[in-house]
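Agenda item 2: 2'-monophosphoadenosine-5'-diphosphate complex prediction
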Amino acid sequence: ETRATADIGLTGLAVMGSNLARNMARHGHTVAVHNRTTSKMTDFLDAHGSDGDFVGSESLSDFVASIKQPRAIIIMVKAGEATDAVIDELTGLLDDGDILVDAGNAHFADTVRRQQALEEHGIHFVGMGVSGGEEGALNGPSIMVGGSDHAYERLGPIVEDIAAQVDGTPCAAHVGPDGAGHFVKMVHNGIEYADMQLIAEAYDVLRSVAGQEPAELAEVFRRWNEGDLESFLIEIAADVLAHVDADTGRPFVDVVADSAEQKGTGRWTVQVALDLGVPVTGIAEAVFARSVSGHDAQREAAQKVFEEKLDAPEVGEDFVEDVRTALFAAKVVAYAQGFDMIVEGSNEHDWGIHAGEMATIWRGGCIIRAKFLDRIREAFDDEPDLTTLMTQEYFATALREGERGLRRVVTTATAAGVPVPGFAGALSYFDALRRDRLPAALIQGLRDNFGAHTYERVDRDGTFHTQWATDD
Ligand code: ATR
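Presented output:
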């Protein structure tokens, strides 16, 4: 009979699973490991057995029996059907109070569904968002846990141990029940899309309008990384821009196909935002910009028909600083929208998510890690029910200081024929919020005219409909 000696179990030993298991073992936890194909488990033990204490099992039943009760088991297999299959197999082997953790990239709605189904079996199902890729999984990711208090009591100490640490605080937290962790992970990825799009546009504008070469721009980004913009993405943007292709001697950015890929979490974010009615325009523009980049046929057709080049307007030295302040301002808008979505999702699903805590756990381990997130956390600490990040003092100042730059970048880029959907979208959102009257009034008139959809008035309560005159 197998003795239960393991603190936690993990099944699914592809790269992410292996790295998480090694990370836990390196922190002194005894980890039970399993993989459908047994050779992967034995290969894992051969390669990494010296990282710490592992208990390898060939069968799922031995694996389950090797874990201390209440058991905590992390599933790290392909998202979708594979996850359901593994959950089904494990369910029959578990006892009341055991904890099953999906650390894969599940859609939060699937997590909610699985949690509900497993609750009937007395199993605590957890959706755990893990950010930071393979490197993060091994050396300290950002971890967003959705599940019951009972589950987090068991899981929390291990998860907080293996997460990235910033100023002594772990980048891991109990976000809320069921789908909350995967939801927040999804929005995190959406924000990552928006951030990358803005960085890409800043590069494009500086190169196309100010005529700076990639190597010079690498220096610009390095300088930016010493100020408010300090972040992992700006840092690696400098690295990528500085990189020279070994085969051709050309800047790396010039030999890469200019069609951006997406795995789908950005798209999920926008789909869910549409359902929630939250205008995450920064994320949406980023997702669509990637789609546009991949529409080769349309791009080729348009380039043939509209081939004349536009002259870039003259700009001076100060343009670089305008782009920097514009980038920061647009980033504030995109993050404000992302946090609006977290608050709205939390309200809709009754998750009780603490928005400021999300900023705390994104400070390390994940792709959007940045100094800036400290400011977001402080903003929510000062005012937990903040209506929008954009009006909080620090961010309002950034917007005031960046507004001129943002307008200049958008007008200059537009005149030069350089697409800036991220910058322009951020500016339009900012202008829409601060405008006293929006043309939505006319839209209400149109709706009432063609469909008797009724409208409200500014000067009286009630619902109104006008008998519109017709031509005949
Ligand atoms: P990779 O990441 O190497 O491309 P993958 O097909 O995405 O592999 O699978 C990742 C993990 O999910 C692997 O551990 C895989 O187990 P195998 O090594 O046996 O292929 C696991 N996995 C995928 N489908 C599974 C299923 N239906 N049941 C159990 N484990 C599954």
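Discussion summary: The radius of gyration is 25 Å.
Owner for follow-up: CH.
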